[in-house]
Design a protein that fits this description.
Blueprint lengths: L15 E5 L2 E9 L3 E5 L11 H7 L4 E5 L15 H14 L5 E6 L1 H12 L4 E7 L13 H7 L6 H8 L5 H15 L11 H11 L12 H8 L4 E6 L8 H4 L8 E6 L6 H4 L1 H14 L3
Parallel strand pairs: 3-4, 3-5, 5-6, 6-7, 7-8
Antiparallel strand pairs: 1-2, 2-4
Helix pairs in contact: 1-11, 2-3, 5-6
Length: 290
C-alpha cells in the first residue's frame, strides 16, 4: 500500500535556515501558489503567528514566515531599526530565490515592510498591512495600557487578550482563547521568546521621539501617495497600539489604499478572524493585479 503523504501545516512544518551575509535566517514555508512573505510584530517569533491564519493563507499562497536576525532561531545581530528589519526580508527573499512577491507585515513588521516596499518596489506585487501604522506623525496615539502590558517580562493569556483582542467583547475573548490554544499546540522546534532585556534594548536603540514611523523628508509618505502598488490595511476597531483612525485621513491621499476594519477586534484581527482575513488577502491579490 502506498504511503499517504500528508500536507505540511503551520503546526507541523519544520524550521529551515537560509544562509545570508554571515548569518542564518530561520524560516518556515507552507502552501502553494504566489509567494507571500510575512514580517513579525514587536517581541514576535515564528510561533507568534496563529497556525489557523497561516494554514488558511496556504490555500492560496506559498507562505513564508521567519525570525528576524538574532531573534528566535535566527543568528546575527538583532535590531528593531526599520531598515534593518527590511534588510532581513530582502536577504531571505534573495536566499530563497523569491523574485517578486506579496509582502505582509503585522504591527512593527508592518512598518518594516512599508520601508521595504518603498525601497524595493519592483519586488512587491501587493502590500498587506495588519494592525500597523502609516508613515509620519500619528494624530491618534497609543493607549497607556499597551505599554503597561507589552513591556512585561512575560505575557499570560489575559495580557494577550488585552494586547491583541477586545477584552470588552465576549466573542473576542473567546476567539483570543482559541487562538492562544492553537499557537501553544505546536511542540516541534519552537522559536525561543525574545528576552525582556533584549526587546527593551532593541526598543530603546530604535526609538525616535519624532514619530512611531519616522519619515525623514516625507520620503515614504510621498512614495505611497504616488505608487500604483495595491495596499491593503486590516485593523481592529479598537486598536490600542496603532489606532485605525490614523489611516482614515489617507483614504483619498493614497490612491491604492484599501482599508478594512474588523468589528469588536484589537491589535491581532488576523488571529481573531483567521479564515476571514486570509480570504480578504487572497481576494485582494486576485482582484487587484499588478
Amino acid at each position: 500500500m502506498d504511503q499517504i503523504v500528508r500536507p505540511r501545516t503551520a503546526a507541523t512544518v519544520p524550521t529551515r535556515h537560509a544562509e545570508s551575509r554571515g548569518r542564518r535566517l530561520a524560516y518556515r514555508q507552507i502552501g502553494t501558489g504566489p509567494d507571500l512573505i510575512l514580517a513579525l510584530r514587536f517581541r514576535g517569533v515564528m510561533d507568534s503567528w496563529d497556525p489557523a491564519f497561516l494554514d488558511a493563507l496556504a490555500r492560496d499562497f506559498t507562505v513564508t514566515v521567519f525570525d528576524y536576525s538574532g531573534l528566535g532561531q535566527s543568528t546575527g545581530t538583532p535590531s528593531y531599526i526599520r531598515a534593518d528589519m527590511a534588510q532581513d526580508v530582502l536577504d531571505l527573499a534573495d536566499a530563497l530565490g523569491i523574485g517578486r512577491f506579496v509582502l505582509g507585515g503585522w504591527s512593527l513588521g508592518g512598518v518594516a515592510v512599508q520601508v521595504f516596499a518603498a525601497e524595493h518596489p519592483e519586488r512587491v506585487s501587493h502590500l498587506v498591512l495588519i494592525g500597523t501604522t502609516p508613515p509620519g506623525p500619528q494624530p491618534h496615539g497609543q493607549e497607556p495600557v499597551f505599554y503597561e502590558t507589552a513591556l512585561k517580562p512575560e505575557n499570560d493569556l489575559e495580557d494577550e487578550l488585552v494586547l491583541f483582542f477586545e477584552p470588552a467583547s465576549a466573542a473576542s475573548r473567546a476567539a483570543g482563547t482559541a487562538s492562544h490554544q492553537r499557537i501553544a499546540a505546536r511542540s516541534a522546534d519552537p522559536s525561543p521568546p525574545v528576552p525582556q532585556e533584549t526587546f527593551l534594548a532593541l526598543l530603546k536603540a530604535s526609538s525616535d521621539p519624532e514619530a512611531i514611523f519616522p519619515d525623514p523628508g516625507d520620503r515614504y509618505g510621498a512614495f505611497f501617495r504616488g505608487t500604483e502598488m495595491p495596499v491593503l490595511v486590516i485593523s481592529g476597531d479598537h486598536e490600542i497600539v496603532f489606532p485605525v483612525e490614523n489611516w482614515h485621513a489617507l483614504n483619498r491621499a493614497w490612491p491604492t489604499l484599501h482599508l478594512v476594519t474588523i468589528p469588536q477586534a484589537g491589535h491581532g484581527p488576523q488571529h481573531q478572524q483567521p479564515v476571514f482575513t486570509a480570504a480578504l488577502i487572497a481576494g485582494f491579490t486576485r482582484s487587484t493585479p499588478l
